Amino acid sequence: MLTKRIIPCLDVKDGRVVKGVKFVALRDAGDPVETARQYEKQKADELVFLDITASHEGRRTMVEVVRRVAANIFMPFTVGGGIRGINDIRNLLNAGADKVSLNTAAVRRPQLIRQAARRFGSQCIVVAIDARRRDPVGRSAGVPVGRETRNRRIGEPADRQTNGWEVVTHGGRKATGLDAVAWARRAEKLGAGEILLTSMDFDGTKDGFDIALTRAVSGAVAIPVIASGGAGAKEHFFKVLRDGRADAALAASIFHYGQFTVGDIKTYLKKKGIAVRI
Which three-class secondary structure state does DSSP give residue 84? Predict the structure, then answer.
């Protein structure tokens, strides 16, 4: 049986780890190198580094920061943000990344996924999908999720009135018109080795992962799906790995601010019958 992965995420801006809600109201959460070291000690399965404003600001990923983080850890390391082409991917892999995460560039130029997979191998290519629920008439909802989730049980789907999910880019600032499930299928066909799926409705809220979104994408593709956005309790990890059928769960705030360690989550999951690497 394949083990499920628990993955901390470093959202990085101006060389510092930050965290907010739905990629706004960002708070400082520490130095990326020291934070990465701590997750190494906690036996995280992987680490994801996202330069969250690179695409919005029209610049490339902070390669020097990536190099310093990579020099201090041994776990698999994925980097995303500001990647525009093959040369950027090569530079990040040379700086120590094991995988790169494509989001905005892949939406703009889907053939980049195929080119990158052929050049570096599908195992290196993660397609990040930031998805927002549509309202019943098909527009991106953009409703503060707290209003809808306040009375929900932990992990209960919040999309009873949704009309699917739309892919957004630039940290949720730009709608694309793409259906998230269809885009995940296409990314897989183009050669993506993994999907990093973030619910923009739940990101940073600590109300739980979007189970329905995760289950829909996981059921549509054969490649691994990493669920992201909304972790706030141990049960949330259990729900998304079991009910959402995710292969891995990614979180930031609950780890950065010491609410739980990676080990706390893994110990809980093992007791609940989820296969994890301790």
Answer: coil
Please name the residue that has the structure tokens 């020099």.
71
Element (H, E) at 29: strand 24-30
Q: Out of 11, 51, 207, 247, pick the active-site residue.
A: 11
Of 88, 130, 207, 247, the catalytic one is 130
Mutual angle of helices 211-220 and 180-190, in 10-degree steps = 40
11 is an active site residue = yes
Of the pLDDT bands very low, low, confident and very high (cuts 50, 70, 90), residue 143 is: very low
> CA distances (Å), 58 to each of 96, 104, 154, 167, 218, in order?
23, 11, 38, 19, 31
Of 54, 55, 166, the closest CA to residue 108 belongs to 55
pLDDT tens-place string over residues 208-262: 999 999 999 999 999 999 999 999 999 999 999 999 999 999 999 899 888 999 9
Q: Is 104 helix (H, G, I), strand (E, B) or coil?
A: helix
Cβ-count burial of 219 within 10 angstroms (0-12 exposed, 13-18 middle, 19+ buried)? Answer: exposed
The reply to whether 203 belongs to the active site is no
